[in-house]
Amino acid sequence: MTTLSRFALPAKLLAAGLLLAGLGAATASAADREIRIGYQKSGALILLKGKGALEERLKPLGVSVKWAEFQFGPPMLEALNAGAIDFATTGESPPVFAQVASPNFAYVANDPPSSKSEALLVPGKSEIKSIAELKGKTVAVAKGSNTHYFLVKALEKGGLSLADVKLAYLAPADARAAFQNGSVDAWAIWDPHYAAAEAAGARTLTDGDGIVQNYQFFLSDRRYVEKNSDIIRATLEELKKIDDWVIAEPKAAAEELSPIVGIPAPLLEKAIARQGFGVKPVTPEVAAQQQKIADTFLELKLLPKPITVSDAIVQVTQ
């Protein structure tokens, strides 16, 4: 069993995805083309879904669009590797585990770094004032998420390692409940959950600035990309338009996103300001940063075998 396979994917979603994918096939037939997109309640994809622009773009090509929501990255990429979805977006750590699980896993693009959009938090009234004071304390983090790697590096900044703290592997909703009721002493989390926790009185020990890059990646299956490069290219182009709009009008983007995710617009505007936007091809420099993450998790024995990140990069051609 690989590291990634330990993340539970809801049985109904997996069964439905496998059925849609033809019991694991990665692509639909030419007569029934579609793109099934996994998204979270943050970033450009959810705004693209809300606007319906991708459906309009792909309709002349006879391509349908289906959407599936996930709470965080690892279960989304398990669904991608299982053939339940065709396109996904996550932070920098989940792809490392996903590549171990599938030789067809593919990076197709990324947004710029968002180092300030994740943080290590403590309750506002906590006596903990520094990272070093977390020794022996319980820290909540989503296993395999972007904040898992951030937590490793943040603890290093404070002279600690993962072995020096008690880890509570919790999905964001469960982690927030544990954080609020005092079951955990600290929480490594990303926006917009980070912004919401701040507004509720949480205090930041450190964000990712100067610690991690925190790229946001757009991901697919190599076989799907090879057979549907026009669909992937169109999707990335529509995402670029959304990114450009968010950069130009962050307040409007926050107001549009607010009713979708149930977070007040001012908090979302703060989260948007900390996030990098602007879809780009994955460069060798970005791949090298990902390789550092893979090597770190391998050293920690959280990754079962070494990988070469550059092997999973697919350029979307005309």
TrEMBL record:
UniProt keyword list: Signal, Transport
Gene3D superfamilies from the UniProt entry: Periplasmic binding protein-like II (3.40.190.10)
Domain Solute-binding protein family 3/N-terminal residue range list: 34-249
GO molecular function: ATPase-coupled transmembrane transporter activity
InterPro entries documented for this protein: ABC_Gly_betaine_transp_sub-bd, ABC_SsuA_sub-bd, Solute-binding_3/MltF_N
UniProt keyword Transport present: yes
UniProt xrefs under SMART domains: PBPb
Cross-referenced SUPFAM superfamilies: Periplasmic binding protein-like II
Keyword Signal among record annotations: yes
Gene Ontology cellular-component terms listed: ATP-binding cassette (ABC) transporter complex
Pfam families per record: OpuAC
Signal peptide residues on this chain, from the entry's feature table: 1-30
NCBIfam families per UniProt: SsuA_fam (TIGR01728)
Family: Belongs to the bacterial solute-binding protein SsuA/TauA family.
Job of this protein: Part of a binding-protein-dependent transport system for aliphatic sulfonates. Putative binding protein.
Protein name per its UniProtKB record: Putative aliphatic sulfonates-binding protein
Species of the source: Hansschlegelia plantiphila
